[in-house]
Write a structure and sequence with these properties.
Blueprint (H helix, E strand, L loop, with lengths): L1 H29 L17 E7 L6 H9 L8 E8 L5 H6 L6 E6 L5 H8 L7 E5 L4 E2 L4 H6 L6 E11 L8 H18 L11 E5 H4 L9 H11 L3 E13 L4 H21 L6 H4 L1 H30 L4 H22 L8 H25 L23
Parallel strand pairs: 1-2, 1-4, 2-3, 6-8
Antiparallel strand pairs: 4-7, 5-8, 6-7
Helix pairs in contact: 1-11, 9-13, 11-12, 11-13, 12-13
Length: about 400
């Protein structure tokens, strides 16, 4: 019984250590490939289409458009198309007011979600490179050139920008989210050097137009699928550190939880739809990377209940087990406290960090249950992040 209890107790430890430490270490040892983002001349730059699906973003849409108009890329080689997913506020009128400055507008009459809006826009895109972005983020002025430059390498089919999590002040920023985003960007940099990243950033990524036009059901995640489609066609998706976009941190733990449930569920459904990518005989290291980066992380929370049971059994004879069990209990209590006080006051890091970790794992369980039930929510509710305005570095 004690041996079984120990196995149960250490199973999540093994998965966490492998997923978050051993896997990146193996990538570090395997990395060989590099990317080149050297700029030549404007005449050699490809045409690009920047598309942004929006839903009821009247508070932020003008700031987004001003940022897009200011990007460092030849005006005659870029197209900017904003897609309204049946917005019911003043979003459409604000977008239309920029028509004389080259902003193109498409309204989807029936709300269908982010991927549905991107699918509807596909036929109108003229660029050889398609850049997909999000209404709540801000692209740095000099970010598009390095993102597009990597396509000079014929082995590159898609490229993902570097998310930079920012907050207005130390009081309102979710330090758990900030740390996780930084870690994730580091893993993507390592994956780039091996066989390409396994999922692009939904905030800011680019893809060859012929790959972007590959059909994808509306309920799935196009940014995740983009990397899988790219690999299906024998190309790779890279992460470009110089292509920075600023992502406002979600101050509310509850909103972050809902976002994670939604994105993980769509990720699970997307991977199931493209499950052939897990065929290691066909896709080799990429399949291993996909399994390690995605599936192993999704499995971690399912081992926690049995681990707590194992610890409870062992704690009757082992002091260390009682200490670990006490720590787990206190961190769960911190999570409950964070949920109760969510949005009411600033919380110390010793509460915020474990609350973010527990909430993320519970969200993964929730998402898998919803996916297993066949729930679909293509008509996404965008995460309402506080406006960050235009960061000073965007104006460089």
């Amino acid at each position: 019984m004690t041996t079984i209890a120990l196995v149960l107790a250490f199973l999540p430890v093994f998965l966490v250590v492998y997923s978050y430490l051993v896997y990146p270490l193996i990538l570090f040892l395997l990395r060989k490939r590099s990317i080149s983002a050297a700029r030549t001349s404007d005449a050699d730059l490809p045409t690009i289409s920047i598309t942004v699906p929006v839903y009821n973003e009247e508070a932020q849409i003008a700031g987004l458009i001003e940022t897009l108009l200011d990007i460092d890329y030849p005006v005659d080689r870029r197209q900017i198309l904003i897609v309204s997913d049946a917005s019911s506020d003043g979003t459409d009128d604000i977008i239309k007011s920029y028509a004389d400055r080259g902003i193109e507008f498409l309204r989807v009459p029936t709300r269908g979600g982010k991927t549905a809006a991107e699918n509807a826009a596909s036929a109108l895109l003229r660029g050889s490179i398609v850049i997909n972005s999000d209404a709540t983020i801000r692209i740095r002025r000099d970010a598009v050139l390095p993102l597009v430059a990597v396509f000079a390498d014929p082995t590159v089919g898609a490229a993902s920008g570097r998310d930079m999590s920012i907050g207005k002040s130390n009081a309102d920023e979710n330090v758990g989210e900030a740390g996780y985003v930084g870690y994730e960007m580091g893993v993507r940099a390592l994956e780039t050097g091996v066989d390409g990243i396994v999922g692009a950033s939904g905030c800011f990524y680019a893809i060859r137009s012929e790959l972007h036009r590959c059909p994808l059901p509306d309920a799935l995640s196009r940014d995740f699928a983009a990397a899988l489609i790219t690999r299906q066609h024998g190309l790779r998706t890279v992460s470009v550190d110089q292509a920075i976009c600023y992502v406002p941190r979600t101050a509310s733990l509850r909103r972050e939880y809902k976002r994670k449930v939604r994105t993980i569920m769509r990720g699970i459904e997307t991977l199931y739809y493209m499950r052939a990518m897990l065929n290691i005989r066909r896709y080799g290291r990429f399949s291993w990377m996909l399994f390690s980066h995605k599936i192993c992380r999704w499995l971690v929370p399912w081992t926690v209940p049995t681990a707590l049971l194992g610890l409870a059994i062992v704690s009757s004879t082992q002091v260390w087990a009682r200490v670990v069990l006490l720590g787990a209990t206190l961190s769960l209590l911190a999570t409950v406290l964070a949920w109760v006080l969510d949005g009411r006051r600033a919380l110390p890091r010793w509460i915020v960090i474990p609350a973010y970790a527990w909430s993320g794992n519970i969200a993964a369980m929730h998402a898998l249950i919803k996916a297993a039930r066949g729930d679909q929510n293509p008509a996404w509710e965008p995460t309402r992040r506080e406006s960050i305005g235009t960061p000073p570095t965007v104006q460089q």
